[in-house]
């Protein structure tokens, strides 16, 4: 009886051991599978980070090359300098990305945000340069001689050139005013003459109306019109216009003068509040619907 009881106890222990072994085996298999799964996920994530990093490097490199391509046909030194500056910044970010481990998620995110900024800046320059290209294509449709002399002039400058020739013929008439001298200059903040565009704060138009006893005396209005290198006029308000040769055009500044028939000195100013580019600026003076003076000024 005791021996039978003892055999039963041994059989129970053996069953428990078998179950325990099975449980431990199952746990080991589970942990092995789970570990393998985690290792596989980590491997897949690492591959994705590496792929994303490679795509970012390619895009940074592409932008750096595009900056070089955009500069090829440009003549605007200021714009070329800006593009060169952005290209160097893009190259610096590319170098930072190359030195960053794909597992450094925080740095990858930062450089990804920087890439978006670079993309937006590039887009803005492409739009700006496309606009300049459209202007150049428009100019090529104009007179060949004008295009050679004024590569950045607009159709409006071409029209004014023709009008100037017509005005010069009318100046021969004794009843029309004429300018005996005309100085178109600039001033810096110290009130001195200046030729560097970055230091200019004011345009000055200093001219002398010649004596003409046949011209009707009284109050007259002098209009100054200043054209930028691209042919656009400097205007404070779009409503600042006057009639010239039956055409309404914009003026930069105007001044009322009391003309007595004698020689008279007049000075007019334009305070610079906008961005100016280097190049040749042209100033025109109009009185009584006639252009009586023209001067060019080149800023570096």
Identify the strand order in the major beta sheet.
6-3-8-9
Mean pLDDT: 78
* Strand count: 9
**What's the shape?**
rod-shaped
- What does the largest sheet look like? 4 strands, antiparallel
Q: What helical percentage do the residues reach?
A: 40-55%
Q: What do you see in this structure?
A:
With 300 residues, the protein is α+β, with helices and mostly antiparallel strands. The protein is 50% helix and 23% strand. It contains five helices and nine strands. It has helices spanning 2-71, 77-98, 105-139, 144-149, 155-171; strands spanning 179-187, 202-209, 218-227, 241-244, 247-250, 253-259, 264-271, 279-287, 290-299. Strands 6-3-8-9 form a four-stranded antiparallel beta sheet, with helices on one face. A three-stranded antiparallel beta sheet has the order 1-2-7, with no helix packed on it. Strand 8 and strand 9 (290-299) form a beta hairpin. Helix 1 (2-71) runs antiparallel to helix 2 (77-98), helix 1 runs parallel beside helix 3 (105-139) and helix 2 runs antiparallel to helix 3 (105-139). The longest helix is centred in the first third of the chain and has 70 residues, at 2-71. The N and C termini lie far apart (120 Å). The model has no long low-confidence stretch (mean pLDDT 78).
